[in-house]
UniProtKB/TrEMBL annotation:
Record Pfam families: DIE2_ALG10
The UniProt record lists the keyword Transmembrane helix: yes
Listed GO MF terms: dolichyl pyrophosphate Glc2Man9GlcNAc2 alpha-1,2-glucosyltransferase activity
Pathway of action: Protein modification; protein glycosylation
Name of the protein: Dol-P-Glc:Glc(2)Man(9)GlcNAc(2)-PP-Dol alpha-1,2-glucosyltransferase
Family: Belongs to the ALG10 glucosyltransferase family.
Function, in words: Dol-P-Glc:Glc(2)Man(9)GlcNAc(2)-PP-Dol alpha-1,2-glucosyltransferase that operates in the biosynthetic pathway of dolichol-linked oligosaccharides, the glycan precursors employed in protein asparagine (N)-glycosylation. The assembly of dolichol-linked oligosaccharides begins on the cytosolic side of the endoplasmic reticulum membrane and finishes in its lumen. The sequential addition of sugars to dolichol pyrophosphate produces dolichol-linked oligosaccharides containing fourteen sugars, including two GlcNAcs, nine mannoses and three glucoses.
Catalyzed chemical reaction(s): an alpha-D-Glc-(1->3)-alpha-D-Glc-(1->3)-alpha-D-Man-(1->2)-alpha-D-Man-(1->2)-alpha-D-Man-(1->3)-[alpha-D-Man-(1->2)-alpha-D-Man-(1->3)-[alpha-D-Man-(1->2)-alpha-D-Man-(1->6)]-alpha-D-Man-(1->6)]-beta-D-Man-(1->4)-beta-D-GlcNAc-(1->4)-alpha-D-GlcNAc-diphospho-di-trans,poly-cis-dolichol + a di-trans,poly-cis-dolichyl beta-D-glucosyl phosphate = a alpha-D-Glc-(1->2)-alpha-D-Glc-(1->3)-alpha-D-Glc-(1->3)-alpha-D-Man-(1->2)-alpha-D-Man-(1->2)-alpha-D-Man-(1->3)-[alpha-D-Man-(1->2)-alpha-D-Man-(1->3)-[alpha-D-Man-(1->2)-alpha-D-Man-(1->6)]-alpha-D-Man-(1->6)]-beta-D-Man-(1->4)-beta-D-GlcNAc-(1->4)-alpha-D-GlcNAc-diphospho-di-trans,poly-cis-dolichol + a di-trans,poly-cis-dolichyl phosphate + H(+)
GO cellular component, one term: endoplasmic reticulum membrane
Annotated compartments: Endoplasmic reticulum membrane
Organism: Leptonychotes weddellii
Length: 162
């Protein structure tokens, strides 16, 4: 790929990432205004995330209704605590439902970037050394062009669901 094409790809990616962030922020704002209280599984996860945010990591305070590992809670603390120190926010603001939801928005944009990197790794970049990217499912060849569009669809779908 020439230098001009690589630069153009960078511009396209920057535009796509910016649009993803903008749309995510607009959706976040709309949902945050409409849903002020925890909904669905946030009923379980929000109190647990707030305990972690407040520095209570004891296993005795773990909600037995939660079956997932505490990774997102720990990462959320790693994002919101430094922000509270930098901006001087109170613990009430930092551990609020809106801030913890915003951390998920940041991770969804991060997922978009990671999936873009994965897409670049899977797709051949040079016409001269193009690899065979077809897959075979039970002896049926899947069309290469269809596979490329499937990759794109999977990247876009997964970027929207962190």
């Amino acid at each position: 790929m020439g230098a001009g094409m690589a630069q153009l790809e960078g511009y396209y990616f920057s535009a796509a990432l910016s649009c993803t962030f903008l749309v995510s922020c607009l959706l976040f704002s709309a949902f945050s205004r409409a849903l002020r209280e925890p909904y669905m599984d946030e009923i379980f996860h929000l109190p647990q995330a707030q305990r972690y945010c407040e520095g209570h990591f004891s296993l005795s305070q773990w909600d037995p209704m939660i079956t997932t590992l505490p990774g997102l809670y720990l990462l959320s603390v790693g994002v919101v605590k430094p922000a509270s120190w930098i901006f001087g926010w109170s613990e009430h603001v930092v551990c609020s439902i809106g801030m913890l939801r915003f951390v998920n928005l940041l991770f969804s944009v991060g997922n978009f970037y990671l999936l873009y990197l994965l897409f670049r790794k899977v797709q051949p970049r040079h016409k001269g050394r193009q690899r065979n990217t077809c897959i075979y499912l039970r002896n049926f060849e899947v069309d290469c062009l269809a596979l490329n569009s499937v990759h794109l669809q999977v990247v876009l779908l997964l970027a929207g669901y962190p």
